[in-house]
Amino acid sequence: QVQLAESGGGVVQPGRSLRLSCAASGFTLRSRGMHWVRQAPGKGLEWVSVISSDGRNKFYVDSVKGRFTISRDNSKNTLYLQMNSLGAEDTAMYYCVQESIWVFDHWGRGTLVTVSS
Amino acid sequence: SYELTQPPSVSVSPGQTARITCSGDALPKKYTYWLQRKSGQAPVVVIYEDSKRPSGIPERFSGSSSGTMATLTISGAQVEDEGDYYCYSTDSSGNPVFGGGTKLTVL
After folding, report:
1. Residue A44 and residue B100: Cβ atoms within 8 Å?
2. What is the pLDDT of residue B1?
3. pLDDT recorded at residue A27
């Protein structure tokens, strides 16, 4: 049974950093593309980043390029999102999502990031 | 940046047909996917590649795409179908883009 558990969210001041984690079970991260998707309060879903199954390709939405870095630790079967230079616009619930040929078929429960002074 | 446009809300009575649209300039060349999100639950893909229905999704859910518009149709909508529906596709770089979401009310 596939399970994804995000952690690492919290309240952070503007300009600071935060690292989100997503512990995967029931499958190996190496076998699937993995994404981060966020939802700001009262807003819709926004795709943030993807890492390909082989780990070679990483892509980001324009608004986070140069600030966010997606990575994974295969030994821990854990996905990460390093977020730097955070701003109020990054306040959102962040979800890690397993993808299979563009079908977002498993989602975590999310971790809330609040950027506020 | 590429955008997908959905109506903010759709409302139908139980048993009626609900149609949710998603428009985008690249849809003639790209697949559309539909996510259902019920309150407090993880999103579920109800349609993939324009019109395919995953196993376990009721037959009343169907999808179509023509030109720059994709449509999710729920034939005989039920109260349990209430929730937010998001279309998504990919942009010219091959990255996912979500529509703004449509709140479906069945009452």
Report:
1. yes
2. 84
3. 92
